[in-house]
Specification:
By secondary structure, the protein is an alpha/beta fold. It contains three helices and six strands, in the order βααβββαββ. Strands 2-3-4-6-5 form a five-stranded mixed barrel. α1 (12-21) crosses α2 (23-30). The two termini are 16 Å apart. The relative contact order is 0.24.
């Protein structure tokens, strides 16, 4: 995530709730900020472009918060475990098919 941007700390379930209430407000609120999301790992996968995607549990088990990592984080990502807490910082946040979706994300060292 870029330096000198305001940080917004939020839990994955809270992130889901904010988008569920008002997507326009959520987007406006998070615009220009590095969003630091804390949550429980639901899955660690790769998408069709080979990007690592870490899904964090929300209040809706079918709509986890999907965090797409920047490249070069294979070592950190391979240390993640389902059911364990993690912190992920994302340069941008949006909502795709109902789920919060972070892009340009970096795993924080615990």
């Amino acid at each position: 995530a870029e330096k000198d941007r305001p940080l917004l700390h939020i839990g994955a379930s809270q992130l889901f709730y904010v988008y569920e209430q008002n997507e326009v407000l959520a987007d406006e609120y998070m615009k220009g900020k590095t969003v630091v999301v804390t949550g429980i790992v639901q899955s660690i996968d790769k998408d069709f472009t080979d990007t690592i995607v870490v899904e964090l549990e929300t209040s809706n088990e079918f709509m986890p918060a999907r965090m797409s990592l920047t490249s070069g984080q294979e070592t950190k990502a391979s240390a993640l475990r389902k059911g364990k807490k993690t912190v992920i910082s994302c340069a941008s946040m949006s909502r795709i098919l109902g789920s919060p979706s972070g892009s340009k994300c970096v795993l924080d060292a615990d």
